[in-house]
Write a structure and sequence with these properties.
about 350 residues, alpha/beta, TIM Barrel, two-stranded antiparallel ribbon, 15 strands, about 35% helix, globular
């Protein structure tokens, strides 16, 4: 088998490498979701432009009909010519990371395409994984996110992070070294705009003084925010203040147990309850060496151990056919294998 990772590292070994005692330390009974979810990424990017980008809408409708829990898209606004930062952890990348396109690759705006997807779907949740939020102005982001949430009837999950590309920050006039602070201020402003009739928040570079913004998101506490990042104090602080869920960065199935233990400690140090957080984890695509096709049993092999460790949302970015019927068949195959991989107490018919 050959493994190709969607985000961070590739599959090796025989599962998560975590013991049942690890699981008991990390996740309590009250933390377990009624049923783990499967989220599938749609490729809003390509090395060269397809004949018609609207195949993404066909894929989204197919996912909706097939019963996929969530679809997500990644995010970039622009690229510099040097893409090596994606493989540099000190810059926000990940060891061994390879950017999926060259600098001239085609990338649709993540929020715009999710707005279009919202209009052609009914039940599947919609997410960014992840949006480089400091690149957007806080008020604009709050407005766009609220709009997507309203037209989707509350189906939007805003996954955010700080990114890795210095040139992208230069292009929008935001200091790369200040991106953590800008993210914190952006999330604070969004929360105030989403939940207050009259927002009042003072940031370093902007001020909300008696600002009104309507419509509000569907939920009284605003659009659910998922925080992307490593298990470090800054990520924990954002999770406690703003987070519905955590999207670990640079964490594999094998390293998740240790990462979750560290994040639990950091969240508790911030006064938060790690057990209330949802956790998403990317699964690498596994290709059969003999057939060249997806090896779905091997791909979902780590799922039972990871469920015990608290992962509530499994994310993958396998290639999906452009044709609507073929796409639906692919989604159904993924869902069926995922269901088979779940521990017996987590299967759909037992969770009803």
């Amino acid at each position: 088998m050959t493994a190709v990772s969607a985000w961070a590292g590739s599959k090796s070994g025989d599962g998560s490498g975590s013991s049942s005692s690890d699981a008991e330390q990390i996740v309590g009974a009250s933390r377990r979701p009624s049923k783990p979810q499967l989220s599938i990424g749609l490729r809003n990017f390509a090395s060269t432009a397809p004949a018609d980008w609207r195949h993404i809408l066909d894929q989204a409708r197919a996912a909706d009909l097939a019963g996929v829990d969530r679809i997500f898209v990644p995010d970039h606004l622009a690229f510099g010519s040097d893409l090596t930062g994606y493989s540099k952890p000190g810059q926000g990348g990940v060891v061994g990371g390879v950017q999926p396109t060259e600098a001239d690759g085609e990338w649709l705006d993540s929020l715009t395409i999710l707005g279009a997807i919202a209009a052609v779907t009914d039940r599947v949740r919609l997410a960014t994984n992840i949006l480089v939020a400091p690149l957007r102005g806080a008020v604009v982001l709050a407005k766009v996110a609220s709009t997507i949430d309203v037209i989707s009837h509350g189906r939007f999950d805003l996954g955010v992070g700080i990114g890795w590309q210095k040139a992208e920050y230069r292009a929008v006039g935001v200091e790369f070294s200040e991106r953590g602070r800008v993210l914190d201020e952006t999330l604070a402003a969004c929360r105030d705009l989403w939940t207050s009739r009259e927002a009042s928040y003072i940031a370093k570079d902007f001020s909300l003084d008696g600002i009104h913004m309507m419509p509000k998101p569907v939920r009284p506490d605003g659009v659910p925010v998922w925080i992307g990042g490593r298990p470090i104090p800054a990520t924990a602080r954002r999770l406690v203040r703003y987070g519905t869920g955590w999207i670990p960065w640079g964490v594999t199935s094998e390293s998740f147990g240790e990462a979750a233990q560290e994040m639990r400690r950091l969240v508790e140090d911030e006064g938060g309850d790690f057990g209330t957080l949802q956790i998403a984890l990317g699964l690498p695509t596994v290709v059969s060496a003999s057939t060249g096709g997806l090896d779905l049993p091997a791909m979902f092999e780590p799922v039972p151990d990871l469920v015990q460790l608290g992962v509530s949302d499994f994310r993958t970015m396998v290639r999906i056919p452009h044709d609507a019927e073929a796409a639906r068949s692919s989604f159904e195959d993924l869902l069926a294998e995922f269901e088979r991989a779940l521990p017996s107490g987590e299967k759909a018919d037992e969770a009803l």
